[in-house]
Amino acid sequence: MRRLAGVEDEEKWLAEGIAGIQHNAFFMHRALDANNLREVLKYSALMLSELRTSKLSPQKYYDLYMRAFDELRQLEVFFKDESRHGLPVVDLYELVQHAGNILPRMYLLCTVGSVYIKSKQAPSKDVLKDLVEMCRGVQHPIRGLFLRSYLAQVSRDKLPEIGSEYEGDANTVMDAVEFVLQNFTEMNKLWVRIQHQGPGTVREKQEKERNELRDLVGKNLHVLGQIEGVDLEMYKETVLPRVLEQVVNCKDELAQYYLMECIIQVFPDEYHLQTLETLLAACTQLMVGGLSDLSVLPLTILPTVDTKIVLTQLMDRLSNYAASSPDVLHEFLQVEAFAKLSNAIGKVIDTQIEMPIVGAMTLFVSLLTFTLRVHPDRLDYVDQILGACVVKLSSVPKLEDARAMKQVVALLSAPLEKYNDIVTALTLSNYPRVMDHLDDGTNKVMAMLIIQSIMKNNSCISTADKVEVLFELIKGLIKDLDGTDTEELDEEDFQEEQNSVARLIHMLDNEEPEEMLKIICVVRKHLMTGGTRRLPFTVPPLVFSALRLVRQLDSQGGDITGEEVSATPRKIFQILNQTIEVLSSVPCPELALRLYLQCAEAASDCDLEPAAYEFFTQAFILYEEEIADSKAQVTAIHLIIGTLQRINVFGVENRDTLTHKATGYSARLLKKPDQCRAVYACSHLFWVDDIDGIKDGERALLCLRRALRIANAAQQMANATRGSSGPVTLFVEILNKYIYFYEKGNPHITPSDIQSLIELINTEMQSDDNGNRRIHSDPFFTSTLRYIRFQKQKGGVIGDKYDLIKL
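Structure tokens predicted for Vacuolar protein sorting-associated protein 35:
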């Protein structure tokens, strides 16, 4: 009838019940005031009869029960005072058993029984046993659960536990345990029985009601966990077997998972560790009952809690216990905790074929967390877990569940966070195999986490084998996976990814040149598969890493030849030439040119003239064939001139060829000012201010004179197009070059040359082509004149030279 009733009906029935309790409680209180025992028992029984209703849901019944409970507390106070009712407690215990209905009788009996135990006129174990047995007379699930809950509540402080006033020769802690276990067993049976009441159409409502009642059953386990005197031996031999027997045999999923959760939460961690095998055996049996009942329950009401939650909670508690103190770790070794947990998880996953992949991954994450806390030095255990994960993932065609993907990332991140060293993770053979099951996006996320870990911990990858494994792990960043198009990627994200790879390359190092060359070859092999968008980011750090090795070899004063790879500058330059050639065809000619010039300078430092000349040749070819933008040409020619100036390895013939090319390209730039500046920069190719530097003053002067002619032409073009000659900046810049070479002792630069140039600039500043005088000043020219005057005033050898210049 209750199953079909609405909310309004339940509210009406609850109100009627409360009214009945209040009505009879009024007469009961009047009888209490008059110390009339007969009337007290009469009206208390009538009051408690209101609890016989079957119309209320557990929540509404609880409200009614609490009204009656409050009245029973006052009734207990009356029973304690023998002077008020005039009966010995033994006779009172007998008297209340004559109540007409069993439910009021049992509530009265529990209330008097509490007073009976407190009087100590009988052993508490006998009274408790009598009460728990007699409560079997109430078999209605909800009424029986609340009755036994009342019994547990009134007897909690009267259990004969160690340190209790009720402990004695006739009462032992085992009696307390036996009473709680028996009450728990009966309550669990009543709780499970609720699901079999009523038609199947209300099964979902029944499950909800059962969920509301579960704390009544779980409180018994909390009491067991708090009883003083329940040591490990008693827990192992009596408490746990009895509780697990009830859990497994009830064959009810909701009861099984809730009670297992209670067991894990209420009993001490050290007890769980010492009884781990028993607990795990029970976990693997939970599915037997659950699977047998699946055909009965609609899929929509299957409990959300499952075995993986139980196992995960157990492993989390044991992990925290292991982390609490290093002194307890030996206990885990003694009981072989890892082997037992690993086997149990394997059985659960193999048996539960329908378990979602996210469930299996969650179990593996918990097991790995446990392992890293308890056995951080056992990398074989970690690899074993990853291997089991690979097997499970291999059974799935494609991992698409976002939650499962998140768990896999957590699984892969755990070793990085624990060891703070990617090198340790690289020794795990199954680590890359797990990553292979991630989708492209998640693979990149994981790759970025690996690189960030390396940067954060400043880890150095020092062997070619480990670099090979590492680059397999981060392959999602260095090449396209499964034909994905990099054009679809967000530009900022793409640049951040590639910059991370570039930073990573600088973390690869080995003091042994032979091994370092192997590392460079491994990196190059992977980077060359990156596609045209990635190479401009990844090739430069590879080139500079190789040049660092070249300079290391040069400082050691010789080549190093190993069994497989010859670590020689010449060999490295061959690799670099091939690498930059790929970059130049991307096309990214400006970057390739810069790298060629860097290599040329390094080859010069190693006295390898042929290699340096080849790199310059490649740079000029790029300049001629690939660089068409005028601004890029200006930048490139100045880079070429600057690099060529610093190199002193070339013989006369090769140097003449290169300088001739440089000056020729300088004079053919598009804009006259650019031509001028490039040509006067070429003067430094013929006069290098160091001990071994070339000093061809005549050719340097020729470059300056040529620059002066170009500057004059630029002025004339400006006058023709704009009607004025424009600024004299180019002339001033050339004047500064004259002064520089004059100071450095170029015999072909004379004071008269400088004097003539100053007069030319003054003339250009004071008049235009129509002969009109104008007032015009140039800050650069003013500063230059100020410098000449300063040198005159300073005196000495330099001052004497400047005395010949008249301002």
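The first helix runs from residue 7 to 33.
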